[in-house]
Predict the structure of PknH-like extracellular domain-containing protein.
Amino acid sequence: MARKAPWYAVFPLLMLLLATGCGGIEGSARPAPGLKPRPLMGETIKQVLLDDAALGKILNQRFKADAHLPPRFGGPEKLQTGFGVITPAECAGVTTMTVRSAYSSYDVKNVARESWWNDGDPAKVISVAEAVVALPTATDADALFAKFSDQWDGCNGKTVTVEGGGLNFADEISDVRVANSVLAATVSVQLSGSSTGKRPEARAVGVRGNCLVEVEITFFSTQSPSDQGSGDPHTSAIDIAHIMMDKISALS
């Protein structure tokens, strides 16, 4: 039975109540022609994650870390155990980043994840979560990406309910698409009993070598033209996934 991630119910809820790679990097190192990239494992995968400065340049707003959500690194135990019962369970991987049930049939070697939050100024984006999941081989990663693509396509247009801990959500999945080794979707999140409106989340999963990258960008439900940032629910998560994928190539 799939469960929703714990952070999902705490910090974004507070925000709701208040207000509610393959684009290349110039100069990226590439394996020599004919040289097979080596699998990326261990603490090296942490170098794939972007810091607050890099995200700030991409999204044109400032971010900060949160002491309650420190960076995570380890084995499969670092996948999300979840919060709340998700129905239908096969759509849990769309609405929840790195949820354990989505990876349960694969031999996950390492997981690295980090979250960044709006620094308090009026802006478009509440938070950015990014993760890298290392599998034994590129074949394994490609197979899992293909599985995710089929699952997400089957969830397109569905409303996923999340119940538990006194908080109920209805997550509408839309705009599922795949291009250039990146799978993307928009999730419109509605907290039961809230009058603040649906909160958009941009989701993206990319594959490069033996790794999958995951990105989730949470946007404020209401925005004004004066808000900082250039974040776009349709493109920003994809852009970040491509940059992370290119970092994998540079490290392989």
User: Anything to note?
Assistant: The helical segments are 6-18, 52-59, 92-95, 100-103, 138-155, 236-251. Confidence is low (pLDDT under 50) at residues 3-32.
